[in-house]
Amino acid sequence: MSEPVPTVSVSDLPPDAPMLDVRELDEWTAGHAPSARHLPMSELAGRVSEVPGDDPLYVVCRSGGRSARVVAYLNQQGFPAVNVAGGMQDWAAVGRDVITDDGSAPRIA
């Protein structure tokens, strides 16, 4: 049985927390957290050198499933990563800012 990954709820997340959004490009384009950086889970293994060195690094996806897998992987690689429980769905539900890069109305895809 594997170790549980470190997890934080959106309500316990600092507003300016360094975040890594691991959703796919269409999901990111639809709407993302202002402080997030984008690195799709599907590209992570080949781009691990681009993972920010923030301590801790909060990892987010749509609902928390993909980000939990990414956190487990990053922890194995020595990164101090923490999963954001509930993902961007919870982020938006508690009223945190969601932005787009093109100025369109943001949504969680």
UniProtKB/TrEMBL annotation:
SMART domains assigned: RHOD (SM00450)
Pfam family membership, one: Rhodanese
Ranges for domain Rhodanese come to 13-100
- UniProt cross-references to Gene3D superfamilies, sorted A to Z: Rhodanese-like domain
InterPro entries assigned = GlpE_sulfurtransferase (IPR050229), Rhodanese-like_dom (IPR001763), Rhodanese-like_dom_sf (IPR036873)
| CDD domains found in the cross-reference section | RHOD
User: What's the protein name?
Assistant: Rhodanese-like domain-containing protein
